[in-house]
Amino acid sequence: MLHYLGTRLLRATVSVVMVVTFVFIVLRMSGDPAVVIMGADAPPEAVDAFRTAWGLDQPIWVQYLSFFKAIFSGDLGQSMRDGRDAVAVVLERVPSTLALTVPAFLLNVGIGIPAGVYAALHRNTAIDRFVMVMAVTGFAMPSFILAMLLVLVFSVNLGWLPSAGQDSWLNAILPIVTMGFGGAALLARFTRSAMLEVLGQSYIRTASAKGLSWSAVVWRHALQNAAIPTVTIIGFMLGGLVAGAVVVESVFSWPGVGRLLVVSVSNRDLAVVQAIVLMIALTMVAANFVVDILYGLLDPKMQSQTRAARA
Amino acid sequence: MAFVQIRDMSVAFGSAPALRGISLSVERGEALGLVGESGCGKSITWLAALGLLPRSAKVGGSVLLDGVELIGASPSVLEPVRGGRIAMIFQDPASSLNPVHRIGHQIAEALALHRGLTGAPARAEVIRLLDQVGIPDAKTRANAYPHELSGGQNQRVMIAMALAGEPELLVADEPTTALDVTIQAQILDLLGTIRRDTGMGLVLISHDLGVVSETCSRIAVMYAGRIVEQAESAAIFANPSHPYTRGLLGAMPPISGPRQKLVSIPGSVPEASRMPQGCAFAPRCSEAIADCTRVDPAAVTVEANHLAACIRATPAKTGTRTPERVLA
């Protein structure tokens, strides 16, 4: 087990380092933060002083090394905008984002999985087709289009819900619905095909031939097997809990991490962008760990492999 | 009255007929072999009888179990029959067991359904059953998952699960096809032993006439969704009356005597959607005459308890010839 976790951890570390490195390089090659932050018409001495203050006058590999040294000592640098600790700037936005993504995630799972299972069990019926049309629509429509449609209907025409800001809980409804619908659509599609795959297996026929009622066959024999591939998709969604709202937060001017990321990238606020990217990478890695553990619980074959790896 | 009486059963998937009028009976405690090439409808016959085909299958005719109609019966009639009176085991034991449940649990499920056993008594019965089908160290193995066992052991588990409901008839659908030859013999021996001990009937579905003749007292040969010949095993070998049966026998290597070339049947089974007119076997038959492509022959009594559906089969002197069915 330790060996198994060890390799997973090593692999995860490599991916985090690669992501952070990539962002480090791209951000520095795509615009001079000193010019962006100080303004194009700032006096050259001021820009130079800014560069020296933030170490931007050093060669890029020196910056890179000191950046990694700082990460390992827990220091992700300060925001170039207001000099505050980058981690603090990011963390204060996390609750806002979670206020959207957690309910959206619950909608994804709470609607997507039952809809997918139901559609699979009633294959080729009108309800199945309805679910699939909704799923394809939700899957194919970019979230900002859906967001704007919702704003048009519920804010502009009906005037029921606010279209932007964070004044009350009412503001959260449209962004949550936007994200909830897309994710539920994706999950419904995957759950349906996973379920259809399982229902065609011989052991389902065996369970029926044993004399089990159809509902017992579905509950006891089909669902757990169908859950195994579905968990992968849920893992991706979990990984997006912190950062999954970039587009939607921007459309609805919701002051979360996603919006902070967009603003910080256009401002070339390096430390903040890097802190966010690192956090996203870490949540992805954590979500993958959760998926691995769930796999182990759902699929006995994984347990045997783990045992074999340990031996 | 026969234990199971199948009368004129037909099955179609869309417009493609899979079974074209099967009549077959199984007596209580009898061992019947059902032989034919893959796709001839051997398995479908029994899946249809137990209502295990997908809803898209159109099933016609009648299957009487002790006089109770099973075709079109409600789940409340079918569920106690499945596993309780007629149990089924399948070709590929590894995929026929649920990979996420322990084998003991899967057997216990049948015990709870058909004998109301739960908890410790169920557990004890699971171990007894595993022991009965020859799984060593049954106590530990009951906690194993299917992927931790070999194919032969999984088939033993399937048999144990089938026995759990104390069925009167076991339908074994190619139970040894996916197994090694040495294991095949063990599984067939096991089925024989169980039959001796319990008096359970057996329907052995196989493409292998040799396997069937060793185990069963009576054989029905199927071709393209129909039964072309049925008789006592000895009579099938001594007096094969349908050219297809003769073809199957010719394709079997003889155990003794000089080496001789095996004869294969030319051509292949017709597709269900493109059934030829007249006898389905006529295009492959070396003895076909002109009438064969016009008339779909009905079963003829060749001798006592021996039916063959061939236009050229000679009826017994005392036998009656049932009217021929002419396809328009």
In quaternary terms, these chains amount to: heterodimer
Number of strands of chain A: 0
Estimate nothing, just give the exact number of structural domains of chain B: 2
Q: Give the helices and strands of chain B as they follow along the chain.
A: EEEHEEHEHHHHHEHEHEEHHEEEE
Compute the separation of the termini of chain A in Å.
Answer: 9 Å
Gross geometry of chain A = flat
Second CATH tier, the architecture of the largest domain in chain A = Orthogonal Bundle
Largest sheet of chain B: 8 strands, mixed
What distinguishing features does this structure have?
heterodimer; A: 311 residues; mainly alpha; MetI-like fold; 2 domains; 15 helices; 0% strand; B: 328 residues; alpha/beta; Rossmann fold; eight-stranded mixed sheet; four-stranded antiparallel sheet; disordered C terminus
Per-chain topology:
The complex is a heterodimer of chains A (311) and B (328).
Chain A: H1 2-29, H2 33-38, H3 44-54, H4 60-72, H5 86-91, H6 94-121, H7 126-140, H8 143-157, H9 170-199, H10 202-209, H11 214-239, H12 246-251, H13 257-267, H14 270-298, H15 300-310
Chain B: E1 4-13, E2 16-26, E3 31-35, H1 42-49, E4 57-65, E5 68-69, H2 75-81, E6 86-89, H3 93-96, H4 103-115, H5 119-132, H6 138-141, H7 151-164, E7 169-173, H8 181-198, E8 201-206, H9 209-215, E9 218-223, E10 226-232, H10 233-238, H11 243-250, E11 295-296, E12 300-303, E13 306-308, E14 325-326
Parallel strand pairs in B: 3-8, 3-9, 6-7, 7-8
Antiparallel strand pairs in B: 1-2, 1-4, 4-5, 9-10, 10-13, 11-14, 12-13
Helix pairs in contact in B: 4-5, 4-7, 5-7, 7-8
Structural description of this entry:
The complex is a heterodimer of chains A (311) and B (328). Chain A has helices at residues 2-29, 33-38, 44-54, 60-72, 86-91, 94-121, 126-140, 143-157, 170-199, 202-209, 214-239, 246-251, 257-267, 270-298, 300-310. Chain A is mainly α and 311 residues long. Chain A has 2 domains: 16-91, no CATH class; 95-255, Orthogonal Bundle (MetI-like fold), CATH 1.10.3720.10. The model of chain A has no long low-confidence stretch (mean pLDDT 85). Chain B has helices at 42-49, 75-81, 93-96, 103-115, 119-132, 138-141, 151-164, 181-198, 209-215, 233-238, 243-250, and strands at residues 4-13, 16-26, 31-35, 57-65, 68-69, 86-89, 169-173, 201-206, 218-223, 226-232, 295-296, 300-303, 306-308, 325-326. Chain B is of the alpha/beta class and 328 residues long. Chain B has an 8-stranded mixed beta sheet, sandwiched between helices. Chain B has a 4-stranded antiparallel beta sheet with strand order 2-1-4-5, with helices on one face. Chain B has a two-stranded antiparallel sheet with strand order 11-14. The radius of gyration of chain B is 21 Å and the shape is globular. Mean pLDDT of chain B is 88; it is low at 318-328. In chain B, 46% of the residues are buried. In chain B, helix 4 packs across helix 5 (119-132), helix 5 packs across helix 7 and helix 7 (151-164) runs parallel beside helix 8 (181-198). Chain B is built from 11 helices and 14 strands. The interface between A and B is medium-sized, with 23 and 31 residues. Chain A: This is ABC transporter permease. Chain A: GO terms for molecular function: dipeptide transmembrane transporter activity.
